[in-house]
Structure formats: structure tokens, C-alpha cells
């Protein structure tokens, strides 16, 4: 990943933080939010006590790394000062000069914000080095003098509500133009594939996959024979539901392509003009 891409993402995420007071979300990531805020508070206290002497501690694999969480610090002139994660390769580099005009304008707004003791948060899409994918990330940060101290976590699992919204969107597109929509799903169009959410479509006449947003090798194969990772006949169960219902849902064990682990998946179903359209989400730990 280029230096520009890394720092551009940092600048964009910080811009989205400006003027947004911290709110602790009551959601499935509440435990991660608490861990991130605890690590940030610890780092801010350390920096206030030791000043720049604390930066070396933030960059070591020690007290300021908690699993996948790590502290990183950027100053208001655009220099990465510390990082306990992959962005450590940027430490000491004056990256502000590599930004284009638009990003310079955004960063200027960031550094113009006051130091007011407020923790701010935002969500944005960013590269996850561990999974080699772009995922949603939630970041918390606080400005101390001319230092921006930050910590964030990735959000690889989408909610049931997000899965149902995507199902509604894709079902509508299948109803209006099935051929184009199936092609877009098979091309992994970014509007029809969101984080760990993707659709698959089955032709009820042939009982075969006609589209799959993640595993193209399944296209044209017998859907009825599909089984969960623990052997349950999910293809048969879905076809049985769709004989008598226009909508439905099913839960089963499946491999999450984002985490690479077998996880329980809740899949929502919609019958549309002779097709079954499905979108599922993985259970959040």
C-alpha cells in the first residue's frame, strides 16, 4: 500500500471526527468500544504525564497494544509520531507534503480544531492488513496539544438490519432487471457487496445457483445439494420454505470469508419472479 493511500485514509478518518462528540454506541461492538476507549484513556494519561517520551512506548508491542487494538499518534503538521501497528512504517515521515489539494484542505480543517479534552469518534472504510480486505473501522481519538492520539477497531460483521436492507435493494433490482442484476452480483459489484454481506440467487425452476457474490464456482451447481459446514441440508430447507412463502430466513454454520472462521450465519430470503434471492449476516461474538 502506498504512503499516500495510508495517510490519505488517516486524514479522511480524522476529518470525519471533527466536531462529533463521543457517543458510546449500545450495539454488538460495545465490548470493543469499551476496550478502545480504555486503551485511549490510558495512552492520553501517559502522554500528559510524560509528553513525547511516551511516544516510544506507544510504538512497542507492550502496554499500549491490546490484541488487534493499538495506539497511533499524528501531529498537526502531518507527521506520524508513533504506532503500535502496521502504520509504524510511517513514523517520522512528513506525509502532509504528499497530499493532493483536496486532502490538504481537509487536513487543514482537522488541525484547526481546538484541544478541548473531548474524545471524538467516527466510522470509515479502511484496509485491514490482517485480512487483506477493506473493512469498516470505528476510531476514537483525542487531541492533546498538537498531537492526535487515536485507536480503532475493525467491524467485520454486519447487522441483520444491514443484511435485510441489502436484500430489499437487490430483490428490487432482480424484479426490474434480473439479467443485469445477476451479472452485477457475479462481477462482485461494490454496490451489491458490502463488507461481509453478499447475495446469492437460485433459479427455482432449475434449482441451481445463477449468481453468487463471493464464490463464483457455485454458479450453475445444484443448490439442493448445498450443506452447511456441519452437514445440514440448507439447500433443501431453503427450497422447501420458498415453495409456500415469499420471504423467510434460515440459520446455519458457514465459513465467514472475512474472518476465515466457521460461524453461525443468519440468512434472509426473498422469492422474486421465479428466483430465490438471499443475503446473510454472521453472528457477532
Automatic annotation (TrEMBL):
Every Single Cache domain range: 22-108, 145-236
Any Pfam family matching the protein: dCache_2
Any single GO CC term annotated in Swiss-Prot or TrEMBL for this entry: plasma membrane
Signal peptide positions (record): 1-21
Keywords: Cell membrane, Membrane, Signal, Transmembrane, Transmembrane helix
Membrane-topology descriptor: Multi-pass membrane protein
Primary location: membrane
Name the record gives this protein: Calcium channel protein
Amino acid at each position: 500500500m502506498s504512503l499516500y493511500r495510508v495517510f490519505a485514509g488517516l486524514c479522511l478518518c480524522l476529518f470525519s471526527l471533527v466536531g462529533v462528540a463521543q457517543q458510546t454506541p449500545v450495539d454488538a461492538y460495545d465490548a470493543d468500544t469499551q476496550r478502545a476507549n480504555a486503551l485511549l484513556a490510558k495512552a492520553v494519561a501517559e502522554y500528559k504525564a510524560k509528553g513525547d517520551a511516551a511516544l516510544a512506548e506507544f510504538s512497542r508491542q507492550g502496554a499500549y497494544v491490546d490484541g488487534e487494538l493499538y495506539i497511533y499518534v499524528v501531529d498537526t503538521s502531518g507527521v506520524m509520531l508513533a504506532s503500535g501497528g502496521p502504520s509504524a512504517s510511517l513514523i517520522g515521515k512528513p506525509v502532509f507534503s504528499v497530499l493532493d489539494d483536496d486532502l490538504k484542505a481537509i487536513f487543514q480543517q482537522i488541525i484547526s480544531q481546538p484541544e478541548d479534552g473531548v474524545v471524538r469518534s467516527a466510522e470509515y472504510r479502511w484496509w485491514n492488513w490482517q485480512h487483506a480486505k477493506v473493512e469498516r473501522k470505528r476510531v476514537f481519538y483525542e487531541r492533546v496539544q498538537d498531537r492526535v492520539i487515536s485507536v480503532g477497531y475493525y467491524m467485520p460483521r454486519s447487522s441483520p438490519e444491514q443484511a435485510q436492507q441489502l436484500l430489499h435493494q437487490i430483490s428490487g433490482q432482480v424484479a426490474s432487471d434480473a439479467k443485469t442484476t445477476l451479472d452485477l452480483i457475479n462481477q462482485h459489484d461494490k454496490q451489491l457487496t458490502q463488507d461481509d454481506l453478499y447475495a446469492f440467487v437460485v433459479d427455482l425452476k432449475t434449482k441451481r445457483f445463477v449468481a453468487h457474490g463471493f464464490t463464483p464456482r457455485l454458479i450453475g451447481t445444484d443448490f439442493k445439494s448445498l450443506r452447511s459446514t456441519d452437514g445440514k441440508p440448507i439447500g433443501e430447507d431453503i427450497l422447501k420454505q420458498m415453495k409456500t412463502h415469499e420471504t423467510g430466513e434460515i440459520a446455519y454454520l458457514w465459513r465467514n470469508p472475512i474472518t476465515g472462521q466457521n460461524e453461525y450465519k443468519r440468512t434472509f430470503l426473498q422469492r422474486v419472479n421465479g428466483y430465490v434471492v438471499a443475503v446473510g449476516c454472521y453472528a457477532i461474538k
